[in-house]
Amino acid sequence: MRLPVLLRKRKTDTHKGDYGYVFVVGGSLGLTGAVCLCANAALRSGSGLVLAGVPESLVNIFETKLTEVMSLPLDEDRKGFLSARAFKKIENINEKIDVFAVGCGASTKFSVKELVWKIVEEIDRPIVLDADGINAFTDNLNRLDRKKTGQLVLTPHLGEFSRLIKVDVANIKKSRKKLVKEFALRYNLTLVLKGPNTLVTDGKNIFENETGNPGMATAGSGDVLTGIIASLIGQGLDCFSAGKLGVYLHGVAADFAVKDKTQNCLIASDIIEYLPKAFKKLKNRKTF
Predict the structure, then answer these.
(1) Is pLDDT at 7 greater than 80 in this prediction?
(2) What share of residues in the chain are helix, strand, coil (percent, to 5)?
(3) Does 235 reside within a domain?
(4) Taking residues 227-256, what's their average pLDDT?
(5) Which residue range is the domain that position 188 belongs to?
């Protein structure tokens, strides 16, 4: 694919609104770090604006942990957990947003599932679903047919994908490419199946990533990937292209990081730290 010019070099006459507005919706009591990793990864990947929509009782935590990211307190049903009532605020700012990243650290409370369903069924912007955003559709796959957006990305790991399609992990590993293509085609979306040699497919085309290392098997790594992919969509890439480039950059950053940190000591925030080196490597290529 040909990379947008803005991913290689920015114009002199430019402003933050030219590079995508990412809205990260998630977080819950005990899982605030997931949103922070996702939001910071989006910023580090070039987004001009990033907003974190989080449970209102936890806003002070996010305000302390995040410097460049804005925060929006959202309604709760139970202290520390998002409510479906939060959708009103989300809907009110929808027109300003370029891409949503939904589910990081959100929990599997029913109120959270209701909110995720409303976002998918009533928001027409590109959406990247991760973690509990995906878990909301376990046993509720029919709701994916109700999606309003034509640009939906799911980023499950093997366990999450197993729960979605009711096939055990061992059998998924035997037929990964076939199963991901069938799922993406059936639900008209882009699927990113995380793991060694991450797969990205839109149901017709498939990409197998070759970057990355075992040190990436650490909490929060997937949240970082979600932020990267959402950022790339906000900067003008289609979902399949953003998925391909996102997993590639995610792996390249981890490969740079592991040289200094080692596989045993690598943590998710290290991947964000080394994203500039990954993008610098990318800038030397006209296509990907």
Answers:
(1) no
(2) 50, 15, 35
(3) yes
(4) 97
(5) 18-283
